[in-house]
Amino acid sequence: MRLSQYFLPTLKETPSEAKVVSHRLMLRAGMIRQSSAGIYSWLPLGLRVLRKIEQIVRAEQDAIGCQEMLMPTIQPADPWRESGRYDAYGPEMLRITDRHGRDMLYGPTNEEQITEIFRETVRSYKDLPKLLYHIQWKFRDEVRPRFGVMRGREFLMKDAYSFDLDTEGARRSYNKMFVSYLRTFGRMGLKAIPMRAESGPIGGDMSHEFVILADTGESEVACHKDFVDMDWAAADIDYEDDLQPVIDRFTAKYAATDDERNPDIEKSMAADLAVGRGIEVGHIFYFGDKYSRAMGATVTGPDGEEIAVEMGSYGIGVSRLVGAVIEASHDERGIIWPRPVAPFRVGLIDLKPDDAACAAACDGLYRKLWDRGIEVLYDDRAGRAGVKFAEMDLIGLPWQVVVGPRGLKTGGVELKNRRSGDREELSIDQTLAKLTES
Ligand code: ATP
Ligand code: MG
Fold first, then answer.
1. Taking the model in full, what pTM does it have?
2. 38 in ligand 1 pocket by Cβ < 6 Å?
3. Is the CB of 281 under 6 A from ligand 1?
4. Of 15, 411, 20, 38, nearest to 217 (Cα)?
């Protein structure tokens, strides 16, 4: 993509309404524009990141045999009346009436809808277990939308639902999802710590929030200090194995959000306790037959009896993650994208586009990089070098290649790593080779 043609409306001034760094940087880097409170348009650069995150989430759901579907954003009110949540949900639910006077709503989540689909289609225990997910926009009329996309009113969520015959099966589904979340966040370059969360009506240990430690986090969290440095990208998991040992390894020590903090454990940990703030990027939750019982989602069991299925739900805040990654990875000059979610891998800067040699070298490099599947944003605009450098640092692509007439005389370009700031003089071929490996 050539920057001369790209739609990248960056801002020089820091927008005063933005209170946290990710919100400021997303606005300044031309990733999003606010439409109304807590509702945003995603501009090309922002959308590329959103899609990368979504794709990692999708791949890891697919890897555990969770099947993608797509439910609508607008739902009828009736299933919510059956579950008892239509009134319970309160003003966070955006309620709509259609032209025939029917009550509709913009879905804040999809338990009712998936339960309705399940009860109309699945009859026998032989069809279990089932794991289903979708990635769809949600609407919650939050009291205080803030921090940009991190607490929006309209936001993109991956929500998955499990259906099992009994608690043991439900635990297997829960464990699969738990481990896949470690991998999902690890692949984005994040350390998301699984924290015990308020377990809701059923109790037990089957509710975890996945939290990224950041000063701007909205929830108070406490964990053993070893968790802060743990490698959460638990690689090479065989999902057919018993995953309980993996989970025990990752949770044997202590980690809890404010709802579930335990003063006794915390006292015993003394100096090993790390207390801080965190951003919730995912939440997994086992709720048994709460919805299946209320809505009559039963299957015929092995002995012919009708059994209300055991369910769990598993959310990831896809659009919140865009902000959370920035909170975890930036410096005073701008964003520093982890490679797997970077909108482009390389920023190519032509310092003198009106110089034929510079333009030819850049054009060649640009084509060769794309041919190798490396996404490049090519700053081919006329303008001051300082401005170009500042903008490239602001949008935070992992690598910058700087091409100028002086270096080219000896056949060289400069390769800069955005995170470390390291620069090296390389030939064009060396640059290509290094970027291909990176
Ligand atoms: P929170 O405690 O932050 O309000 P929640 O417990 O209401 O979140 P869930 O219903 O568990 O959230 O939703 C699943 C995921 O969706 C959350 O872990 C979070 O990452 C994301 N999410 C929830 N609310 C918002 C929001 N208003 N804006 C952006 N993402 C959100
Ligand atoms: Mg939650």
1. 0.96
2. no
3. yes
4. 20
Distance, CA of 123 to CA of 128 (rounded, Å) = 10
Residue 232 has a pLDDT of 66
Peptide bond into 44 cis (omega under 30): no
Contacts 24+ apart (CB under 8 A), 262-268: 266/222
CATH fold group of domain 344-437: Rossmann fold (3.40.50)
The ranges assigned to domains in the chain are: 21-335, 344-437
Q: What does the pLDDT read at residue 200?
A: 64
Backbone phi, then psi, for 162, in 5-degree steps? -110, 145
Q: Is the CB–ligand 1 distance for residue 111 below 6 Å?
A: no
Gap between the Cα atoms of 297 and 123, Å rounded: 9
Q: pLDDT below 50 — which residues of the chain?
A: none
CA distance 158 to 93: 19
pLDDT of residue 163: 98
Atom of ligand 1 nearest to the CA of 285: 11
Outline where DSSP puts E strands in 339-395.
346-350, 376-379
- Long-range Cβ contact pairs of 69-72 (< 8 A, separation 24 or more): 69/132, 69/133, 69/134, 70/134, 70/135, 70/136, 71/107, 71/110, 71/113, 71/114, 71/117, 71/134, 71/136, 72/107, 72/113, 72/136
Q: Annotate 132-168 with b (16+ C-beta within 10 A) or e (fewer).
A: bbbbbebbbbbeebbbbbbbbbbbbbbbbbbbbbeee
Q: Rounded to whole angstroms, what are the CA distances from 241 to 56, 74, 176?
A: 23, 39, 10
Distance CA(397)–CA(45), nearest Å, equals 11
| CATH H-level superfamily of 21-335 | Bira Bifunctional Protein; Domain 2 (3.30.930.10)
Q: What is the DSSP string of 152-197?
A: -SEEEEEEEEEEESSHHHHHHHHHHHHHHHHHHHHHTT--EEEEE-
The one-letter amino acid code at 333 reads R
In this structure, what DSSP letter does residue 89 have? T
d(CA 372, CA 291): 50
Distance separating alpha carbons of residues 282 and 212, to the nearest angstrom: 10
CA pair distance 172, 69, nearest whole angstrom: 22
Q: Which alpha helices (DSSP H) does 273-382 contain, by range?
A: 290-295, 318-328, 356-371
Nearest Cα residue to atom 4 of ligand 1:
151
> Tokens 């009559």 belong to which residue?
296
Residue 214 confidence (pLDDT): 87
Both tokens assigned to 437 = 């490996």
**Residue given tokens 């030819």 in the structure block:** 360
Q: Whose CA is nearest to atom 28 of ligand 1?
A: 151
